[in-house]
Amino acid sequence: MPRCPPRFPGTAGFIGLRRASLGFAVVLLLAIHGQATWHGRVAAADVHSANGPDTVHREAGGVSGRESDTAVPDEEGPRRLKQQVRITIETNAPPDLSATNAPAPKAKSLIWSSSWNGWDGIHMAVSRKTPLNGPLAEMRTKVQGTNAYRFYNLEELKMSGKIGAKYAVDGAAFATGDGLDDFDSGIELRRARIYAKGDCLLVLPVSYQLEFGYIPDEFYIEESYLAFMDIPWIGELRGGQYQAPMGLDVVTSSRDITFMEPAAPLQALAPGVNAGLQIGRPIMHQRATWRLGLFTDGVGQDFGDAATDYGRAIMRITGLPFYQVNPETPEAAKLLHCGLSANILYSAGNTVRYRSRPESHLAPHVVDTGDMQADGALVVGAEAAWVNGSFAVQGEYLHSWVRELNGQVPGFAGVYVSASWFLTGESRPYDRAEGIFGRVIPKRNFDWGHGGWGAWELAARYSFVNLDSADVDGGRLSMLMVGVNWHLHPHVKWRFNCGFGRVNGRAPEGNFSVFETRVEMDF
Q: Which residues on adjacent β-strands are paired with residue 158?
């Protein structure tokens, strides 16, 4: 049975507790022993003496410090900050020991702190300290009868965040038929990005993220936005540059998808990272989500449709018809994810373009419509995923209709289906608030000589995309990709992909093979 989120009654209500016997007893314990745990929104009590700080932290849930039998639901976004409130006690000797009046407490102040948390990056926090006046401020001096003065402060967490980085290095080799050129084997720095993200209550309740860095041959801005949470009816309002909400595998972080690159149909027909505004929220107790946004060109282009100088409206709806997860045994999770999306594009430059690589970034684009003279396009998509413990299968279908200026309406389509299985018993985690899959946490991290081998995953995927229609000869690409993923621990991953494909419907045609690997890490 979940425990209710802790609540703090505020300064006036706090002083009023002294009229109640239970409240007075708790305050007395705080005054005499210098440490206690409140059932309210107090996460810890800090005691600062004239000789230096002496800090005692206790989990909320009882004076004894024992963990409760029930768990507190994790809050997200600025709501989490509202619960991070504590009472601090400053003990200072007066400048003149014969003085009879205690020095006045300091005015409101901001406290900055930072720490390096290893693989979890650099964590930062800003707290606001407000002196508490009234009988409580003098209580401990009266009880002990000392010359030291103790000031009670309300310390509220106003901003928190972390700074980290993401790196990925690819290596690939190719075997091609006589007609296919420009497949150059090699090694490249696939991604190198720095990010900062967190929540803030200093002015307005807002979540923020800034992520920028390098992809081959260009500067790139990825997930960078401000998000205002808990707005009535619409939920979240997000503005910035980030992944447009269409397609399960492209909305999911590139770190958490099964293969090194999204399937060819998504690379060709789905939007990539765009600049825009988006609203949406989870509904039905997080059994469904909806997102609606307006987007335009962003800075940099990693993958996704190659249109430029455009505006688009996108909507994505997801649902969980079946969801069975036990937090104590996450490897036994069972769920069915379904989703629908639509993308209406208006081209101010009267051009629309779709193209795709053969699921390897070191390879060239092998299917390409070129610049179609068109003023708009409509893309619809359907997605589904089934997870049964260590086994998972997912697939997506996309179809596009392009309105050319000559009156023709060519149609392009693509589909993929993939399956994966964890040899070590893990299960793909699912984020119900976003309708996407999350990061795999190995049961045992890799630890040489101590029996830890991380998580091992086998996967296979078939994809097909057709960019031939009407007067457009963009070609057809079919791919069979198999892979092995080694999750050494949650922040280090090594992938091996092997693919076989064929291009036809455009020159040059031919068969090819892809052998590639990626080492990636983040903190």
A: none
